[in-house]
Amino acid sequence: MLNSILQTLAEMLANGAVLTSTEQIDFSHPASLENSHRELSLNLYLYDVRISKKMPTNGRQVERYFDDSRQVAEVCRAPSWFDISIVITARDRTVLGELHLLSETLLLLMRNRLLREEFLTPDLRGHGNLSLSVTNEPPIDVGSLWSSLSLPIRPAIYLTVTVPFNVWRKTTVPLVTERYFGVNNSIPAISKSGSITQRFAIAGIVKNTLDAKPLKRVRIMLQGTEKSVTSNDEGYFIFENLTSGNYILHLKRSGYEFKMLNVFVDGEPCIPKEILLMPAY
């Protein structure tokens, strides 16, 4: 996982016209730059790994498919998310050259606030785009960091990448019912013929993937119907007066990636499920 992140960053920097080759990027102790004979190079030094406070650390993932005409599911616990902290320094013949290289690197990083999934190494795929941010508050005090490296403080970029790490194996089970959302109280409705039809509700809470804060003004639509609602200040929404069966929800909000989710309504009461939307950069 860790070497994959460094490899992905190196390829992004090399392909972004900051450098011409990944051979100009080093991952060893920053002191190696002092003894380097390279005229132009970057050092990406990974100095801290800790559990991310922005991402959820529990739950499960379910993938449904048909196996020998039987619907089954692969169930796996959701991955743990870690904040990987990296300090980036530059090496050139002159101080101005180093500052120019750092400036170009910073510009490229600010233009790419996410590591796109299609550019990730295979072991990092399957969780969407990864958050990438330049921080002004490194997890370790800047003075303490450079002191521990036995080096004087020098111009640097402090980068944080939030990545998943999954130690749980998938388990394949026969699928009977998989509910994605809470189904609130069922309501009996009497038709004109006098028969009783059960009515149900679908409820959920929409949150930001990166900080888990509720998202208001998210438009949620039921595919194939004219029903639509908007999440409130707490991110909560509800569809009422529904019959049992399968539904597809469309979630839209400006500045966030579009999302579609399957919903199975069977009348069993449960707590509304959180839905995470990823910001679109």
Automatic annotation (TrEMBL):
<dbReference type="Pfam" id="PF13620">
    <property type="entry name" value="CarboxypepD_reg"/>
</dbReference>
<dbReference type="InterPro" id="IPR013784">
    <property type="entry name" value="Carb-bd-like_fold"/>
</dbReference>
<dbReference type="InterPro" id="IPR025351">
    <property type="entry name" value="Pvc16_N"/>
</dbReference>
<feature type="domain" description="Pvc16 N-terminal">
    <location>
        <begin position="6"/>
        <end position="166"/>
    </location>
</feature>
<dbReference type="GO" id="GO:0030246">
    <property type="term" value="F:carbohydrate binding"/>
</dbReference>
<dbReference type="Pfam" id="PF14065">
    <property type="entry name" value="Pvc16_N"/>
</dbReference>
<protein>
    <recommendedName>
        <fullName>Pvc16 N-terminal domain-containing protein</fullName>
    </recommendedName>
</protein>
